[in-house]
Amino acid sequence: MSVDGGVRLRGRRGAAAAVVEDALLTRAGHWRDQALSTPGRLAAIGLVLVLLALASGAATGLAVGARDTRIDTLRGSADPLANAAQDLYSSLSIADASASTAFLAGGLQPRVMVDRYDSAVAAASAALATATMGVGDDDTTARALLASLSAGLPIYTGLIATAGANNRAGNPVGVNYLGEASHMMQTQLLPDARRLYSEQSAAVVDLEHRNASVDWMPLFIIALTLVLLVAFQVYLARRSNRRLNFGLVTATVAIALMFAWALVAGLVSASFSQRAAAESTGPLSVITTARIAAQQARTDETRNLLARGDDSAIPQTFDQRMVTIEDALDEDDGGTDSGARRNLDAWQAAHGEMRHHLARGDYAGAVDVAIGTDGTSSGTQFVALDAKLEDRIGELRARGQRLVDDSARATGFLAVGSAILAGVAALAIIFGLRPRLSEYQ
């Protein structure tokens, strides 16, 4: 190819490239002009409003879904697990108190005391199994505590069985086995059960507190959409000299309804969760502490008798536990009926009489006051007090479950309703803008 031919070819290629570049620039300018034109701006604003309307429905649905997940976790695992831990804690305390009380009867232990001990051990085993099945694999602390309790409970019951056998045979060594079992209960089993209960109760409290607050992010998105819709209608009315656009008015009403529904449902749901924490979980912890203190005080009382009053530390511990029970009954603010207070006062009076018998050297009289079946014995008053505290725990837990259910119902249809309203708003925006855009064609 000659030099002149090559130059002409390059010239034609350059001209073609220039033509393509000019065409692209022309098209880009056309799109820019379209975007900056009035119909382009209207379409862009409409698209933003449609996306915001859909985002409002999606954000509300996600927030409701997250709340429902927390409530399902609370109802399905956290609360039952905390209740199982509380049952385990209480049952172990009852078993220890019952074993010590039965030991006071001498050789042939009363059937009612043996049955109470056996029932407590069975309840502790059942609660232990329930808790083990309910704890997640990632909760290593709870699993370690449950493993320690599972290993320790058979050892404890074995020591109690050996103590009872020696006691029936009249061997004094039985008291040593009972002391070893009680020491194991007080220093290993009960602290582990208390820690397990505290951790599971904390999980319940955390879920309730998270549900006790309103999810503000969806409300912010909905409010932003509503404000922009109103502003756009004002702008459109000034540009077109028309006051109302049926489609945009419909979208505004739909978004306003979504905002009102989400706000009211969120506030009501949060209010029920707040009440669950204040009227159930809080008092439940207080009364559970009182019940455990009562059971351990009963153990102290019987241990003091077995030691024939020689251990000066036991009466001090007993008095401290009584103060704990009194404070709990006061803090429950009348939730526990006055009968519980009367039982506590009668128990303290009987305990004082038991100490009086011990101080005089009347061991048989002290034992009779402690385990007698008449209405004035400390054992009778303890059983009555324990029953009232147990009933109160059941009442508080049932109230909490009802409030949690009410919290879930408050947002029951909000996710579906917000999705429908978001769809209606998006379609209404599209149909409302179509006539305005067609005017510029």
Q: Would you report the number of β strands?
A: 0
Order of helices and strands: HHHHHHHHHHHH
Shape: elongated
Oligomer: single chain
* Rg result: 37 Å
What brief labels describe this structure?
mainly alpha, 12 helices, 441 residues, elongated
Structure write-up:
The protein is mainly α and 441 residues long. It has helices at 3-36, 38-104, 111-134, 140-168, 173-211, 216-240, 246-306, 313-331, 338-359, 363-371, 378-410, 414-438. Helix 5 (173-211) packs antiparallel against helix 7 (246-306). The protein is elongated. Mean pLDDT is 82; it is low at 28-36.
What's this model, at a glance?
88% of the residues lie in helices and 0% in strands. The protein is mainly alpha-helical. It is elongated and about 105 Å long.
Secondary structure elements and pairings:
Blueprint: H1 3-36, H2 38-104, H3 111-134, H4 140-168, H5 173-211, H6 216-240, H7 246-306, H8 313-331, H9 338-359, H10 363-371, H11 378-410, H12 414-438
